[in-house]
């Protein structure tokens, strides 16, 4: 991360704040700052209490304690919005008091890749139309409660309020949000199957994830069922039961059925779909219960993927 000057904030604990947790104290005094962001600042050793660095978020503070917070200020990004002027109008699926549902097109980042990258992202566009979301969640990805890969299209949730952010994050952490994807993969898969191999970052290529059987791997589970078979591959409905980075892509590649067009995990030749850098993966359904109200959303295949599918040649299962 590129950083400029460091901002320091010195605050003394008042009587009414006696016995307050450190992370809660920082959240209350440093605006905007979520509790998650406060904990990250503490863990990085950027907070001192009475001139002593502390990295324990749960530490209790007492009257007259001196808390100093040092937060490096990121370089200002300047994303270019050309071509995205009517984005929300065209892609908004649902707006509620606490969240938005957006049909993200392929080729758009969910959030900035880094502070040095001026490529426009979904979070940039959303904040431009809903400025209050800038203060929701983590500073570098406001409103984001889950993500889609840059070249994956489909439904994504954006929190509008702190309540929305916290409740949606809780739903994802308890696996209470049901997600369904459409994927076209190479070869002919079984009619259905479950992949439950743990996933970890590839030690040789940090862009990639990999399946593993060591303690470093994080549990991951993907269920799939075949919809149609073609000469070009198999169209699947995929149900990820966990939400690991690149989970569907790496799991399907692990059973030798990588996504069509996926140059990171499959065919290294770009443009397999006739569109450079695009792989065939679309988040087609989202369902969950928020504030005792059930929600279900569906997004059909985007035009480019639907058009490609029409060119495929159906076959009977071998």
What does this structure look like?
- The structure is a single chain.
- With 318 residues, this protein is of the alpha+beta class.
- The chain has three domains: 3-74, Structural Genomics Hypothetical 15.5 Kd Protein In mrcA-pckA Intergenic Region, Chain A; 78-171, Pseudouridine synthase; 175-318, Pseudouridine synthase.
- The chain has seven helices and 17 strands.
- Strands 7, 8, 9, 10, 11, 14, 15, 16 and 17 form a nine-stranded mixed β-sheet that branches.
- A hairpin with a 7-residue loop joins strand 12 and strand 13 (209-211).
- It is elongated, with a radius of gyration of 22 Å.
Write down how many β-strands occur, each being a DSSP E stretch of 2 or more residues: 17
Q: How much helical structure, as a percent, in the residues?
A: 10-25%
Q: For the CA atoms, what is the radius of gyration?
A: 22 Å
Give me the CATH superfamily of the largest domain. Answer: Pseudouridine synthase
Class of secondary structure makeup: alpha+beta
CATH architecture assignment of the largest domain? 2-Layer Sandwich
Following the backbone from N to C, one meets helices and strands in this order, namely EEHHEEEEHEEHEHEEEEEEHEEH
The domain count comes to 3
């Amino acid at each position: 991360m590129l950083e400029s000057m460091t901002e320091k904030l010195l605050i003394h604990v008042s009587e009414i704040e006696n016995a307050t947790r450190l992370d809660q104290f920082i959240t209350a005094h440093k605006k905007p700052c979520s509790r998650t962001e406060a904990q990250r600042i503490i863990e990085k050793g950027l907070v001192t209490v009475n001139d002593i660095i502390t990295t324990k978020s749960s530490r209790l503070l007492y009257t007259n304690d001196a808390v100093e917070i040092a937060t490096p200020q990121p370089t200002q990004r300047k994303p270019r919005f050309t071509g995205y002027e009517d984005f929300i109008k065209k892609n908004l699926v649902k707006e509620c008091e606490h969240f938005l549902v957006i049909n993200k097109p392929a080729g758009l980042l969910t959030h900035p890749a880094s502070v040095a990258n001026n490529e426009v992202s979904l979070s940039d566009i959303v904040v431009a139309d809903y400025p209050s979301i800038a203060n929701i969640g983590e500073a570098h990805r406001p409103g984001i409660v889950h993500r889609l890969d840059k070249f994956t299209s489909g439904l994504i949730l954006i929190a509008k309020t702190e309540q929305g952010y916290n409740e949606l994050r809780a739903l994802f952490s308890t696996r209470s949000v049901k997600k369904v994807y459409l994927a076209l993969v190479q070869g002919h898969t079984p009619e259905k199957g479950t992949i439950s191999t743990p996933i970890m970052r590839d030690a040789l290529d940090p862009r990639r994830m990999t399946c593993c059987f060591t303690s470093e791997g994080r549990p991951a589970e993907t269920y799939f069922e075949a919809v149609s078979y073609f000469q070009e591959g198999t169209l699947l409905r995929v149900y990820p039961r966990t939400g690991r980075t690149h989970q569907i892509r790496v799991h399907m590649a692990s059973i030798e059925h990588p996504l069509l067009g996926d140059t990171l995990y499959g065919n290294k030749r770009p443009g397999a779909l006739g569109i450079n850098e695009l792989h065939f993966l679309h988040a087609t359904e989202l369902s969950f219960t928020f504030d005792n109200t059930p929600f279900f959303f569906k997004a059909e295949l985007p035009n480019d993927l639907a058009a490609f599918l029409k060119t495929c040649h159906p076959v009977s299962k071998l």
